Structures are given as structure tokens and as C-alpha cells.
Amino acid sequence: MSRIRSLLLVLALAAQVPLASATVTYVVGTCQKTLYTSIQAALDATPSPNLIKVCPGTYNEQIVITKPVTLEGISNGTSSGATIAVPSGGLVANATDSYGSSVAAQVLVSNVSGEVNLSNLTVDGTGNNGPAAFVVGVFYQNSPGTVNHLTVQNQTTPGDSGVGVWLDGGSANPSVTVENSNVQGFNNAGIIAQTNSTTSELTAAIDGNYLASSASLANFANGIAIGLGGTISASGNLIAPGLGTGIYSFEGSVSKNTVLGMEFYGILTEFASVTSNTIFNTTSALTGAPKSLFIGSSTAPVTGNTIVQSAVFNAIDFNCVAGNNVHSNTIMGAGRGLINVPTSAVTANTYYNVGTIRSGGCP
After folding, report:
1. Which of 355, 360, 358 is nearest to 334 (CA)?
2. Which single residue of 101, 126, 138, 195 could bond 169 by disulfide (Cβ 3.0 to 4.6 Å)?
3. Helix (H) or strand (E) holding 14
4. Is the predicted pLDDT of residue 363 greater than 80, yes or no?
5. What CATH number should be reported for the domain whose range is 62-358?
């Protein structure tokens, strides 16, 4: 084959590669050759970016994402701190959840057909002005993607409606992962996952996160809240003292989490399986109220959990509805091990230094 024919063949093959396959990358900030000074400007640019790199600095803006993209903070010298902060005028309502409540989200991912991935960013809600029913740091609305190594903080409102990360499913049945992230300073919930559906419209994994706040007895804040209509798991999370409830899960799977020093409930489950969690020192100023593990109406497995707590409180409350599904748990240092246990329930657990192992009062 002649050199001319070879060159023509190479050019013909190159022409068959679609331009859309090229990666479009923009940089926001001043650490590299930069096109944009705001994140939203980069998101709205043409052609649409696949990747946006955010230089260290503070970006006072409320962001709306409507196309697939990876948004990541990058390092520059000795700094890797890219912070999305509230604009000078505060936040405005920019979404509604699946139940119709208004939401003011600092980072809104709205009905995106492809993945939106967020990493190495801080989302700080200081000064949000509480403009909606809920103020949310990161709100995934009917959109797939991954939240990884984010710090989401200071999402509070006077009405106790501040949420760190909220996953709200929908007709697209998106799949979302929240992992390795630090969610702190909220007064409603650290992470919410839910839909308004009787069938699954959200697949979510909430894994390996750290959650902390200073909720008062008045607001019953949750570390993780899992609602209806999803295939959702919470695993390997660490929830620090100061909240009302560590994990509330209507359904799904709750496993291998560590829950420390809750005011009311360590884990409250309706129909979720609760396995291999550690719950320590559930305590409250309201004597006798707290339970390390409360079972609302579940027949799912509640097994392999370790509960260690103050001697005056309750370990597992069967609520007169649970039964043989609760077994193989280890309870240490509780005033009462099992309460509201149906008479017929077989409860093969292990007890150490427990005042009353089992009390019933249920038919």
C-alpha cells in the first residue's frame, strides 16, 4: 500500500470517530489556565462539559445541574479546599420534593438523564436565610450519580428544616451513592432518601459516611432517614452523639453502622432489616424514653447487633409486633434488655449486666 493510500485510510478512520466522544473539561477559579470564575457559568457553557475542575477558593453561588457532569475540587499547592457558599442575598427556593414541599438547595441536581458525580467539595449553608420548607445542601432530584468525599455543613433553619444531602427518586428510578462524606451541622436530617411511591423509584447506597450535629431535644433530628419507595441501604456509617435518632429506616437494609449517644432512638425501623450494627449509650433527659433499637412493625431480620448503653434505659423495644425475627443480638449494660415482647416470641440473644432481660405485656 502506498503512503498516500495509507494516509487516506487513517484520515477516513479518524472521520468515523464522533466528536461527542471527546471529553470537554473546564476549570473554575485561578489555579490553572481558567475559562470561568463561577461554577454555574462553567455548567451552562457550550459545549457542555463532561468534567469541571474547581480550584481552591470560595464560590458564593446556588448551583443547578441539569446535564451529566463530574464536578470535583482539585488541589493547588498546599490547598485542596473548594467551598460552595451561600450567595450574599441568601438562598431561594428552586425545587419541590416528591411530596410537594418547597426546597432551597445549594446544589440542585435536577432530572438529569446521566450521572452527576460530585467529589472533594465543601457545601456550606451558613447564612441561607431559611427561604423554603426545607434548606438542603445537595439535592438529587430524580437523577443518578455519586457523592464522594464531600463535606456538607451548617444546613440549619429556625424551623428545624435543614438537611445535608437529600436523594429524591422518581420515574427514572435513578441510582445514587453517597459515600465517604462528612455531613455535619443540620437540624432535620443528615441524609434523606425517599420517593412518593409504593414501588421502588430509587436505588441508593449510603455507605461509610460520618454524620454529626447538635440537635436539641425539641427537633428530633435524624442522622439518616430512609423513607418509602426505594431500594436503599445504609452501611458502615458513623453517627456521632447529639441527635434525636441515629437511623430511621422505613424499609431497606441497615447494616454495620456505628451509632453513638442518641437522645431517643439509636435505630428505629419499620420494615428494614437491621443487622450487625453497634449502638452505644442511647441516653436522654427523659427518663425511660430512649430505646437503642425500636421496631415499629417489622418482620425483617433484626440480628447480630451489639447494644451497649446506660444502665437505666431500654435496649430493644419489640412494640408488641416483632417476634422471632429478633435474635442473635448482644446486649450489655442495659436496665432492660427487651421490652414489649409478645408472649409467643422466641428471643435467643446474649446478655451481659442487664437488669431485666425481658418484659412483655403483649398478647
Report:
1. 355
2. 195
3. helix 3-15
4. no
5. 2.160.20
